[in-house]
Amino acid sequence: MRKSKREAQQLAEIEVETADLADVEVDIEALDDAEVEVFDDSKSAPADRADEGPLDETEANPVRPYVDLGGVKIVPRDGLHLRLEVEEGSKRVVAVGLDFAKSTLQVQPFAAPRTTGLWNEIREQISEQIQKQGGTTTEVDGPFGPEVRAEIPLMGGDPGSTRLARFIGVDGPRWFLRGVIAGDATVDDEAAAKIEELFRSIVVVRGTTPMPPRELIPLSMPKPSAVDASSGAADQA
Sheet of 67-68: strands edge to edge? Predict the structure, then answer.
């Protein structure tokens, strides 16, 4: 049980701060279904998703310490900095930002149908929206299946300045998890492997509340009880 105690200590040390929505360029909830008349609604996910992640809550190890953020749970690790991105008007948490390996990974969990997926449709709409912003996109076959690699104009930056981003997505059981990768993981294989493993380790908590497809699964501030429970279990071992 020593490992559990160490992980619980790491969980307690992860810093959490709030941020605004300035770096979220593509709003899945706002995308217009009418823009795409025909699309592939099959699920898009790695063949080993149920074993290697991203995991559904029912597939995760129940005794492993996590940072509990409501709709997602994050595995703590050395060097990980966690940010909650908050919508300015409503104060609703709309995304989780993870800074790791000189890269950033923004994640958002969405409700999805039980038997069909969202990523194949959303991927095309993301490309269209980025191109309307003056950016360029390329679809490639990545470690999670099809992904969008984009060069996006910087808002408020020098004319012609851009940043690279990778849009990844996985369809799970009644949920869809989107990730946006920036930083070294867009150009460096070693950093990319670390961020991809981080995305794999995420647990999605869909819950039983009925939700329409594409609705953001509620996110929240970390629950301190997760730290207390993990530490208590380790101390009793």
Answer: 55-56, 203-204, 72-74, 67-68
